[in-house]
Write a structure and sequence with these properties.
By secondary structure, this protein is of the alpha+beta class. Helices cover 19% and strands 24% of the residues. The radius of gyration is 34 Å and the shape is extended.
Amino acid sequence: MSQIFLTQAPARGRVLARFEYPDLRVERGYANRTLHVDLSANTIEARPVSEIMKETFIGGRGFGLKLLWDAVTPETTWDDPENAIVISSGPLGGTMQFPGSGKSIVVTLAPATGVPIDSNVGGHFGPILKFSGWDALEVKGQAERDVIVAVEGNDRVVTVEEAPEGPSDSYVVAEQLHAMFARDEADRQYVSTVSAGPGAEHTWMGCLNFSYWDWRRKSIRLKQAGRGGTGTVFRHKKIKALVVRKSGWRPKWTIVSALPSAAEAEEAPLPAKAPLPPVSEEPPAKKEPDKKKPSEKKTARKKPAIKRPAKKKTAKKKK
């Protein structure tokens, strides 16, 4: 199935909103800005991240709860347009020296309970969003029809586009969007998508599917944010997918390139061996066994005798 959709990528839809942003370097794990998209008004804006926000909320779940708090009121319900979906990674997001740095957190109001819920998910979306220059992505409002929110990290452009016609199955959508936004076959590893299948439209426990390109299998793989019904909120807002692309973030150094070729290995001289320590001809001295002292017999302590009072004999009464 994957090969079919890779060669038949649909055309991109009409652009409803466009936002260009300057290139900023990630410093100490922070891009120092968050991306906000309003689907009702078709507006896109960048908001700064203050030092107090970083010191207090750090990132990830903390950023998500902070942005959700600013977006909603005590009367907001999960299906209100002002309810926001926030995706954020922490300051270690995308740092390849730490395990689990590919994780990102999704925060929104849960359909089943109406309270804030967070769900963590793996994949490449969080790191690529960070490499594209954003600490978090907040989407609120409700579109009139299915739309796609795309972040082009290399071109530094964010767009809201009409989604192409077709099924909303996450595997199909991910295959199509990876082929649509990638420049070539090798570029598909730099694209990641977020989508929810048709099941999320008919239940309060719909999940979100985060895609990444498996270069070994040459196909799409999905990771799930499965807690709280985030996919249900996602589809209620008429979001078909979120897409982010940023190439050039993989390190150029690899194990294969660091190894010498066969010709270089033959020409290279063998390293000099370290000299062995001198061997003594005298036999090692025998150690005399340690003489153990005879163990002293332990005298058992006698317990003091307990004198019990004698029982008094009572005369039996004659009937």
